[in-house]
Design a protein that fits this description.
By secondary structure, this protein is mainly beta. It contains one helix and eight strands, in the order H-E-E-E-E-E-E-E-E. Strand 7 (125-135) and strand 8 (141-151) form a beta hairpin.
């Protein structure tokens, strides 16, 4: 009997707490909670003033490599926007993919590069790995892809 009474009370409280907050039922979202691109200075970006990252290519194929080889590639980009570009993070999809990225601001019109090292130890066949960049651009993430065909050497 106490269990039924408790469940009834809990259900009533739940239903009462789901009421609308506003008097007129307006459920609009405030514009201050929408993700708005920002310049490196922290100011809201206006159209044309936001940073923009553009890569010569966002994919690289190393072709055939031998298992155990460590290969690297530089992804070159330019800031085509109107304010400083900041890369806050670069994360490889596994421990075998190690990115290095500029830690300072890249001014409008300037070039930069993301160096990616791939360690093929323990890998075989077609391998596809990614590096995810977090920036102050829109969209805030950019994915770079590396591909390699890892050949296992024959044992004598």
């Amino acid at each position: 009997m106490k269990t039924k009474l408790f469940l009834a009370l809990a259900t009533s409280l739940l239903l009462l707490s789901c009421g609308q907050d506003s008097k007129d039922g307006d459920r609009t979202i405030s514009s201050d909670v929408i993700n708005v691109p920002a310049t490196a200075s922290g100011k809201q970006a206006t159209p044309g003033s936001a940073p923009s990252i553009a890569f010569e290519s966002d994919k690289h194929d190393f072709g055939k490599i031998t298992q155990g080889e460590i290969v690297s590639h530089s992804f070159v980009f330019v800031n085509n926007g109107g304010s400083d570009l900041i890369i806050s993070n670069a994360l490889g999809s596994c421990g075998c993919t190690i990115p290095e990225y500029p830690k300072g601001a890249i001014k409008p019109g300037e070039q930069g590069k993301i160096d990616v090292k791939f360690d093929s130890a323990g890998k075989s066949g077609l391998v596809k790995k990614t590096v995810t960049l977090t920036t102050n651009c829109t969209p805030s993430t950019q994915v770079l892809t590396i591909i390699a065909t890892v050949n296992v050497p024959e044992e004598d």
